[in-house]
Amino acid sequence: MTMNLARCVGVLASLTVGTGLAEARPLKAVASFTVLADMVRVVGGDKVEVRSLVGPNGDPHTFEPAPDDARALKAADVVFVNGLGLEGWMDRLIVASGYKGTPIVASTGVAPLQMEDDGKVVIDPHAWNSAANGMIYVAVIAKALAAADPEDRAIFETNADRYEAELSHLDAETKAAALGVPVARRKILTTHDALGYFAKAYGIEILAPLGISTEQEPSAATVAALITQIKNDGIKTYFLENSNDPRLIAQIARATGARPGGELYVESLSKPDGPAATYLAMFKWNADLIVKAMSEKN
Ligand SMILES: [Zn+2]
């Protein structure tokens, strides 16, 4: 009697899941932002269903969660965060959602860098912009997924091995391409403060444009200082994060001969039809644009 009931419930459960006979439902994973969610997706394959809290093109530093996000978090089997101070909003959301687990910190094992934020020295959270660090993330993710779903451990490990090999290749390729540029030209001008790990890993100097990152509307003096800086440093291409002022861009271009380098994706993936829909694509996109910018002769 009891056996039959148990079997009955079992049959019902597998029908509800609907993925075929005796197949377990995919693990429900939540990741804080798109770059991390993509890594979990690659390592988890079809054994894991991943939701990113911050969406494509979103800012992972600030996030306004919807009720739906709290529900997803509460129902998650495993939750991934970047750590290193990126997700200042996460603790509040966890408490509000009622999620009882402990998030996995994907950057565990990374050697942290420091950066300046509003005049204060803080830990730089953008560690994924070194592909070698990406490999550390992947290993942490594979281990956490295996702990949550031991039956599929071999699958996670195989996926992670393949992914790490791709990242290792990308890391070596980026290093070779960057180091192929003469050292005097191995510098870029950018407002993206998310490129510290990239610069360190690939031997690049980042120049911050004077004034531009802190002022909404740069003054004439700021623009003049920027133009002098671009000329003095021999910058041929510049990357401005919020370069939505076409007049400023045109003015700098006219006065210096330097060109805007295009859009970098440094802390958020593009939409699926964009140029940076995965972590690998994003990394390669940025590396190609930056190396191209540094290689430009005149
Ligand atoms: Zn950032």
Could you please describe the fold and organization of this structure?
This protein is α/β, with parallel strands linked by helices and 298 residues long. It folds into 2 domains: 151 residues, Rossmann fold (3-Layer(aba) Sandwich); 116 residues, Rossmann fold. It is built from 10 helices and 10 strands. A 4-stranded parallel beta sheet has the order 2-1-3-4, with helices on one face. The protein has a 4-stranded parallel beta sheet with strand order 8-7-9-10, with helices on both faces. A two-stranded antiparallel ribbon has the order 5-6. The protein binds zinc ion. The site of zinc ion has 4 residues, from loops.
Attribute tags:
4-stranded parallel beta sheet, alpha/beta, single chain, 298 residues, 46% helix, 10 helices, Rossmann fold
Q: What is the structural class?
A: alpha/beta
Q: What's the CATH C level of the largest domain?
A: Alpha Beta
Q: Main β-sheet: number of strands, strand sense, barrel status? A: 4 strands, parallel
Q: Quote the CATH topology of the largest domain.
A: Rossmann fold
Proportion of residues in β-strands: 5-15%
Straight-line N-to-C gap: 84 Å
3D shape: globular
Query: What is the CATH-assigned architecture of the largest domain?
Result: 3-Layer(aba) Sandwich
Enumerate the strands of the largest sheet in spatial order, edge to edge or round the barrel.
2-1-3-4
How much helix, percentage-wise, in residues?
Answer: 40-55%
CATH superfamily of the largest domain: Nitrogenase molybdenum iron protein domain
**Number of continuous helical runs:** 10
Q: Tell me which ligands are bound.
A: zinc ion
Low-confidence stretches: 1-21
Query: Into how many domains do the coordinates divide?
Result: 2
Q: Helix and strand succession? A: HEHEHEHEEEHHEHEHEHEH
Number of strands: 10
Q: Give the rounded overall mean pLDDT.
A: 88
Task: Specify the oligomeric state.
Answer: single chain
Nearest-angstrom radius of gyration?
Answer: 22 Å
